[in-house]
Amino acid sequence: AESAKWLRSAAEQGHTDAQNSLGNFYYSGQGVAQNREEAMKWYRLSAEKGNVAAQGNLVACYDSGKGVTQDYAESAKWLRLVAEKGDVGAQNRLGLCYYSGKGVTQDYPEAVKWFRLAAEKGNADAQGNLGVCYDSGKGVAQDFREAARWLRRSADQGNSEAQYHLGLCYFKGAGVPLDDAQAYAWFNMAAAQGNKNAAEARAIIIGKLTPEQIAEGQRLARTYAEKVVK
To answer: What is the pTM of this model?
Structure first.
């Protein structure tokens, strides 16, 4: 409560970090009575002065409809501001907005643009999403080899969805040599993280593998898991 009192003093003097923090207090009910409408007021004051954290909080509120009427278009508007400042998580999320048409007009090339910006900075989710775009040819010329390259970069960071799709690449021989043991290894890694699609794919492929291939796949999975970039 004492912290909230001093935060309010600083917020009322126009300090944007204090305004955002006071918004957090109201959002969670920490030191003040919970009031998400009041939280929105302080987030907006801070966000309109360029505070990136507050802009991100506005995105979350408009996405969830907490403290404000749910509005995906308004969420995407604030998300773009954060993305344009170089936030890789926001860049990937904005790419997803354009990919799905959530809050913006669906635009696959625009989605690829934002995925690539984040992927080239090492964001695993964006790398996986870019790989899927190359695999499907959405927003970019279909290129299985390029798809496998980006999927591998994401999979090596532990992204289960990328691991699943990389397993499919090996299962189909798309962009990489056809290799059932490799496919099994990547399905195994993704399934271990709770990826249901990978678990189903593993159950299908295991029926066509020899005991030696299964053992090799398990060995590869252990090796890759030890090398996952933390």
So the answer is: 0.91
